[in-house]
Amino acid sequence: MNIxxxxxxxxxxxxxxxxxxxxxxxxxxxxxxxxxEELENQIDILSTVGSCTSIGTLKDAEVGKSDLYIxxxxxxxxxxxxxxxxxxxxxxxxxxxVNNSEYLETENAQYLRSIGIDSLIYPExxxxxxxxxxxxxxxxxxxxxxxxxxxxxxxxxxxDNALILxxxxxxxxxxxxxDQFRIVAIxxxxxxxxxRGNDELRYGDLVFIVTRPSFVPNVFTLCGKEQFExxxxxxxxxxxxxxxTASLLEKHYNVKIIEKDREKCIQLADKLQSTxxxxxxxxxxxxxxxxxxxxxxxxxxxxxSSETNxxxxxxxxxxxxxxxxxxxxxxxxxxxxxxxGIGTLINTKLIAASHIYRYTMNVDVKHLKFLxxxxxxxxxxxxxxxSKITKHMLQDMNFPNDATVGGxxxxxxxxxxxxxxxxxxxxxxxxxxxxxxxxxVIKYFQ
Length: 446
Hints:
By secondary structure, the chain is of the alpha/beta class. The chain has helices at residues 10-21, 33-42, 55-60, 76-89, 106-114, 123-134, 169-176, 216-222, 240-249, 262-271, 285-290, 306-318, 334-339, 348-357, 438-443, and strands at 2-6, 25-30, 46-49, 68-71, 94-97, 119-121, 142-146, 151-157, 181-188, 191-193, 206-211, 232-236, 254-259, 276-279, 298-301, 323-327, 344-346, 365-370, 376-382, 403-410, 413-416, 428-434. The protein has a six-stranded parallel β-sheet with strand order 3-2-1-4-5-6, with helices on both faces. Strands 14-13-12-15-16-17 form a six-stranded parallel β-sheet, with helices on both faces. Strand 16, helix 13 (334-339) and strand 17 form a beta-alpha-beta unit.
């Protein structure tokens, strides 16, 4: 696929690196010549120096021959204008990053589609929604829903109180049944495993479990996790993600937001309705004690520094906070943060990539998510009539080793995938796969 990416910022650079590994032809467009030259030396891409709103530059980048045009500059007006131009020049599909929720409203999104923008992405809003979702299931490192919540994916760390510890998947199914939940991936020592029946669960494993909502309490019991109600939340950092998160949470929880910039605090006091805005440093122990940190149920650090967010969450955990969430934009720090016990990690590059990556696949992907703590991807595909996936039961399918089926939606029925399940045309199938297996899996659905 020919892909043009406008914007060599953090999101654009991450996309270029990721998509170039998938053997796509990548053209990266930016005004910064030095940055483009540096990236060309690191990864297999081409580049064009110039403004993404220049018709001449877009023609130089051969936008007219592109299958996908992605505009991810920090300035949303540039992204919108360049995506419209790219469509007029012949780009088959265009995606623009925005920083304002009003563009996502149905009427506005329809208008933008009519003038050439096929899809919009607002990473900060998606990040805020992911944070809110993570607070629904305390005890999990990551929580994700499929088909309006009919299935849930939980990422849970196993410690010595987990009932399923040292069990193989076969033994676990014999004792606890296999109709209600399924372990689809295991993160162990910075390595991700798509498990099979004889794989054993070990101390320190981060397991990814698919289950129905009604069975979630049982899953937490099996994993040795205790649920508790969240009432009081502290957010450190009035970034766009921080403000959006506060606006979503303040309707249901007692929320405080701590921000060092006094001017921002004044603006926030008018913008947020019931959130208490505090001018101060979220790393200040004295301030945290004064604000009753020991009575806080969830601590969310969303400053512009990954290091600050990690340290702030560690400090909060030391002071007794049970749930922590950190924005970690430096991907190299994700494994470190997971290993030292940060609860939930947010990375806007991975969130944006999850949204965009499905447009590069040769099948209709209804949903796709990169699992923050692992190299695995989870996506939802529809089984087409005559496709290979419908020919045999799963146990006879010779499915790729680095992939597995987690669940199946068949009309109003929700099925936890087992070996004796046979996919039918029209089923929506939830797949978990390592990146090297994704192309093999797609062939089963074509």
